[in-house]
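Posting for a labmate who doesn't have an account.
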Amino acid sequence: MWLREYLLEKGSAFFPGREPVVVEEWTDPSPVGERELVMVAVGGDLRSPRSPTVDEMLAAFVEDGWVTHGSHGDFGETWAGAKREGHELLIYEGDGPGILTFTGWTELPGAHTISTVRGAVLCYQCEGLGACDLCLGTGRYEGRRCPECTAGNNGPGRCTICGVTGYLDLDRIPDWARKAYKGADAEPVVEELHAKTNAEALSFIVRRSCATCGEVRCRYRNEVVAATDHVISRLYGMCPRCGQVRDYRFHLPYRRIPPPLPVPDPPECPQCATPAVPLVRGLSTRGAREAMEEGLLAQRAGGCQVRPDDPNWKCLACGHEWRDEDRARLKAILKQILSGRSRGL
């Protein structure tokens, strides 16, 4: 209750005069309890250029005591996570201008539940716990060493399939494990629908179930493009239960979308004046990997957590890394590099 009212209050503050909408409230079961979640959509219909950025909104949450590692961007989308007193928050901004949502959830032991796993599928063995489902991570079962995980390659207490992550990447799991995900190799089914607003479209699909496994939960991405006499809002994602790609194209009433700004030139290296490439962390999509192989992106070691002072540009000629605070330029160049490449759902 507190989290829902708090997100509604922040949404109203960010977009005065435009009421935020509670898209859905739900509960995720897990082997060790239940997680409560709420999704709020704010300013999700062709926001004006004066609308606050994700970084500006994130700064407002930090002032309220939330802890964050900064925002991420990919294909024109932006997302950021934060934590506070056992609660977690995901801010998501779609592309073009897509919908903006806040999703908050309560603390629960374990790595993931069905709604919080992103870009992958929930581990079928531990159901997102990231620990042995028999001994629940203790390494002991009925007073003895756990027969399930003590003999596994991942070590005592860890899930014998995913290790400790709670999820599996369909691109990397072996063929014998793919049989647990019946929709992983199925062709995406695209549905053409109509709605008046982006928020209405999202409210509609969050109640739709996967045609393959019946799962309702799915983390959707959003992009908005102009057609001849209407606007198309695409909401798509991968079912976190079976791997089926879910793709919905909504026809919205026509509204003029501002033309995209020209893509700026990348900054020059302060040491050798060579044009730099974006330095990213945590981008594991196929499109990002392809761009790295072509020398258009560089990846920084250290996982997906990003600190506010991390460098975001790298010179491939001399290896120098530095931080540039012009995030609009970085986002525009990243979008140009990744546009048209596989998004690796």
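Reply:
Got it, the structure tokens are right above this. The chain has four domains: 2-106, 110-180, 189-253, 277-338.
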